[in-house]
């Protein structure tokens, strides 16, 4: 390859425009609550109207809507004016593994240190949370004039760190450590002089009095920002890529495309990392409830609605594992994926991924139409692998479903790595899906 061609090749990685939006979204979404609030802002700008589950819906063909549940899950939909053959749904999740602060979070150590009492949220790689600047964010519920109100909070500065034990105090450290979440993971939040500051810190951020706060969902988050990495900037590094990368791709595709003959939907659920079994998780009635209310609003008969479901298609988008550069033996010898080589279609013999011959064909056809590459993934037959949204959702509302994702490394680390080009592939493929 000539030098000039090589330069041209690397320059494609330097077009960062579509990545900047992702970086901005993730950097401003330290928790699932913030991710949903940021999505709502973008949906409103694109003409989507907010609905409340507590009110009667007056929905009309030709309009666009969104509804959230628990401020941490959201379903947006856009109804074509003339004909609604069925639903085209993209599903993803808003949560990522992290630490949740316990209700009484302050721990004092030897009358010198103040630590925060945390517990695990999801299956994270514990060691990756050590020795990096951390902060806290989430929501508080307080008593206002009109009853109980919710406010998002983000302390948004470096406030805590989980320090490693020095190598001189544990010479066996590099042989591998079993971390105990109760004793090894509480972060150092300051000197003992700050004892009692926690609630007033949240109150100040929320703009309320500390005594007014009656409830809190507060999480520890990694302060690292998203950015490019690699000699040619060919990779991206950042927290929460699983699954905010797919959430962002779904959102971009939804707002940039008008529905053709299907109702376009984006369904983002919370609590995927802890099994989805909550009122705002994929195993809840949320999607089914929204579909039933759309059915009511459009005055569809039961029979018409069932026909529409049979015509519908769901793309469950949750990140996938790329071959690890130091441990290629961890993946199947053939059904394996690489960064920047396209959308990953996931398969699982026991159907933990919902992909089947029909749904894989639909997905491959979409990728071909979009002109984007795809690759296939199956776990090694002797490694269990993770689970995702697709098959859980199908127990609630059944339709043809494919499980896909973008390839990434170090899933559930505090800092994950993915390809700089793959996001664009997914936005393009989902755009074709929403236009079909
Ligand atoms: Co995920």
Describe, in short, the structure shown.
With 436 residues, the chain is an alpha/beta fold.
Could you characterize what this model shows?
Helix content is 27%, strand content 28%. It is of the alpha/beta class and 436 residues long. It has two domains: 17-96 and 239-435, Zn peptidases (Aminopeptidase, 3-Layer(aba) Sandwich), CATH 3.40.630; 98-222, Aminopeptidase i, Domain 2, CATH 2.30.250. The strands form three sheets. It has a nine-stranded mixed sheet with strand order 1-2-3-13-4-14-18-16-17, sandwiched between helices. Strands 8-7-10-5-6-9 form a six-stranded antiparallel sheet, sandwiched between helices. A hairpin with a 2-residue loop joins strand 7 (134-144) and strand 8 (147-154). The longest helix is centred in the middle third of the chain and has 16 residues, at 241-256. The relative contact order is 0.17. The site of cobalt (II) ion has 6 residues, from helix 5.
Assess the beta-strand content as a share of residues. 25-35%
Radius of gyration, whole Å: 23 Å
Which range best describes the helical content: under 10%, 10-25%, 25-40%, 40-55%, 55-70% or over 70%?
A: 25-40%
The total of beta strands comes to: 20
Query: Which structural class best describes the helix and strand composition?
Result: alpha/beta
CATH class group of the largest domain? Alpha Beta
**How many structural domains can be distinguished in the coordinates?**
2
Please mark out the parts with pLDDT under 50 across 5 or more consecutive residues, or reply none: 1-11
CATH architecture of the largest domain: 3-Layer(aba) Sandwich
Sheet with the most strands?
A: 9 strands, mixed
- What integer is the average pLDDT? 94
**What ligands does this structure carry?**
cobalt (II) ion
